[in-house]
Amino acid sequence: MESNPEATGRTKEAFDDFRSYLSNPRMPTAALIANRDQVKQMNPSDGLLLWRDGPVTTKQKPPVAPLVTKDQADTAQLWAVRTEDVAYAEERCAFGKSLESGVIKHTNLTGGLPAFCGGELIFIDESTIVVNGNSGRYGPRGSDEMRLVAQAFAKSGYKVWSMGFDHEADLPAPFIGSYPEWIPA
Amino acid sequence: MNDRIEERNLSLAFGPESSGDSPEERAKTSKLRFVRGQLQLARYSGNATGRVLEATEALELFGWSALLKVGEDGSMPLISSAQEPAHTLKRRREELGLSYENLKRKTKVPVNTIKAAETPGARTPIRILEKLAQAMALDEQVLGMVPDAGRDASLGVRLREMGDSNSNQGFTAHTVLQFAEAAWIVDRQVSIQKRLSEIAPSCLTSLPYPDPDYSYPTYKQGYRLARKTRQLLDLDDEEPVESVRKVIEDQFGLPLVQESMTRKLAGATLANGAIRGIMVNEAGSNTNVWVRRMTLCHELGHLLWDPDDKLKKVTVDTYADLEQSDREQDRDIAEIRANAFAVAFLAPALAVERIYERCNDPTSVVSAVMSKFGISATAAKHHVRNVTGLNTASVRNSDLPTPEPHLIAMENLTLDYFPVKSVPSSRRGKFAWNVAKAQQLGLISLDSAESYLGCDANSLTEDALRIILELR
Questions:
Q1: CB 3.0-4.6 Å disulfide test: which of A9, B373, B454, B464 passes with B347?
Q2: Cβ distance B175 to B157 under 8 Å?
């Protein structure tokens, strides 16, 4: 059965579950906003995309884990679970280059407004992603939060690898240097 | 405008309560600490299990732009390639000719954990990675960030040769690993001394230029260099050297590693990159402090005066080498010169002649030279015979004196009275003093100090650190 690329039903349900786990969105720390450009809201015409249901509808067995390369990490997109939807965009997009920082920040996905969570993702193929929680502004604050947001991505119809949580730094793990963990939907 | 941004960035990186106009000044006054894991650098929070770093230490290791990124984004990824640090660790172990079991025995890290550390993409606690890196003379501070982690490839080759059962030395894997760890200690000590020297000088006497003259008779060159060294230290011919250890460590600021090794080996000089140091065996004949002083002086002779082309990456001396007279010609000229240097540095020929003039009986002369200058019976007999022509062959060792307790204390103080028993002897002495001083001055964290000293977690109490600093 063909999936509808515009559908958002599963996405909404999965991320609403996640939102209700956290209860409230949070504001980014004011001190982290270096300039006004960093809270400039991106629009679809700037390259902002909204997360939609993926093509995966059946339970998947974990394939061979990918080891993310630096080249892949350089193509990362930032994502943010906003109050009503999930926005994402290429970190090094043309819009980002026009900003003072030269790249977009998570606050460009939210306009500096509260959000539930944020991180980075890489598309391995059209149905497989690797996610992490690297966001100084909205990043997951523990391993449970990281796992649950990755599960929300999986429930939205994707094969999902999560970089998981790095207890040594007490932060989500970055893309480079370790194998991701498989997240069943 | 730029100044205002800079101020904001400094506050972001080091906290708003820090003060100063530069990252260095901010780091010194920062209350923030950082944490380094296998994968990333971050601000320290109470739950983080990685290596905790002081702000000054993090700035020194990772630089301003990395700390600013941590301030802005919460973390800074450290791994340069998906293959690291696994590739570097595996390559180094194989380069040294070591099995997993060899490395396990030295580091107490289980084989499966070592294998995991050598597997790209596997997560291994930073404390384990540091332990493995230190044991194989890699720079654990850049492991994962810089391919090869400061590895000195030619040192690796030399150590592998020494461990080859077909070589002259045929050392065991354990001994190879002792040399490798000593090379790490030497390198780390010099880097800490360099930071401490910004506050106070790390040596009292500048190192002289090497001397390439080994001309015949070579022993005379050794005597000449011994005189020159005593002049550098303002010692006249009659003045005994109270502590050779202090001459090496405090006067010349040279790293000295003391370790219990295979019994035939007396000492060695070794180099890790451009950094050189001395290693001396605590076991075997060196348990006699007079023998140990001779060994230390022999190695000092090599390190002070031999040009680079004579000093290999690791030059090993056995007790048999050191017991030979400096008049034996059928030997390497660098060894003849170092032997002559050692005995003449401790017991200048002029002073020996004066003793000879006072007492003609060979046993009395040898005894007086031993007692006054603190040298071994074998060395004293050779030396008295060589300098005065007196036949000392009939002098019986049972008629000769033994070392005074104060001399033993002067040479062994920092090892025997070391307050933290879990610190291996190789990391005691001046190395430990430097680590404790750096920690006291806030240049490194207590966590780093424990890693450098290889001791149990939480064993470096305030009392222990105070005693380490007093043991000089």
A1: B373
A2: no
Please choose, from the candidates B269, B160, B189, B181, the residue with its C-alpha nearest in 3D space to the C-alpha of residue B433. B189
Instruction: Measure Cα distances from B44 to A167, B37, B39, B55, B236 in Å.
Output: 11, 11, 14, 10, 55
Reported as a single tens digit per residue, the pLDDT across A133-180 is 999 999 999 999 999 999 999 999 999 999 999 999 999 999 999 999
Inter-chain residue contact B42 with A169, CB threshold 8 Å = yes
What is the spatial order of strands in the sheet that B256-259 belongs to? Answer: B256-259, B275-281, B265-272, B314-318
> CA–CA separation, B449 vs B445, rounded Å?
6
CA of A86 to nearest chain B CA: how many angstroms apart?
20
Name the stretches of chain A with pLDDT < 50: 1
Element (H, E) at A121: strand A117-125
pTM of the model: 0.93
A70:B123 CB<8 A: no
Listed in sequence order, the DSSP H helices in B376-443 are 377-388, 405-416, 429-440
Interchain contact B119–A (C-beta under 8 A): no
Q: Which of B121, B39, B129 minimizes the C-alpha distance to B82?
A: B121
- Using the predicted structure, report yes or no on whether residue B408 has a pLDDT greater than 50: yes
The CATH number given to B86-151 is 1.10.260
* Cβ–Cβ contact B359 with A under 8 A: no
Distance CA B17, CA B186 (A): 37
Q: Where are the domains of chain A?
A: 9-56+68-183
pLDDT tens sequence across B41-72: 999 998 999 999 999 999 999 999 999 999 98
- Alpha-carbon torsion, ordered B159, B161, B164, B170, to 10 deg: -70
Contact B384, B372 (CB under 8 A): no
Q: For residues B459 and B461, give the distance between their C-alpha atoms in angstroms, rounded to a whole number.
A: 6
- B70: closest chain A residue by CA: A136
Asked if B458 reaches chain A (Cβ–Cβ under 8 Å), the answer is no
Q: What are phi and psi of B33, to 5 degrees?
A: -125, 165
Give the residue range(s) of CATH 1.10.260 domains in chain B: 86-151
How are the residues of chain B apportioned to helix, strand and coil, as percentages rounded to the nearest 5? Answer: 55, 10, 40
Q: Extract the tokens encoding B250.
A: 């405090």
At which residue do the structure tokens 């002495």 appear? Answer: B429
Interface test with B, best of A117, A141, A178, A181 (most B CBs within 10 A): A178
Contact: A178, B78; criterion CB under 8 Å = no
Cβ neighbors of B226 (< 8 A, separation 6 or more) are B301, B340, B341, B342, B343, B344, B345, B348
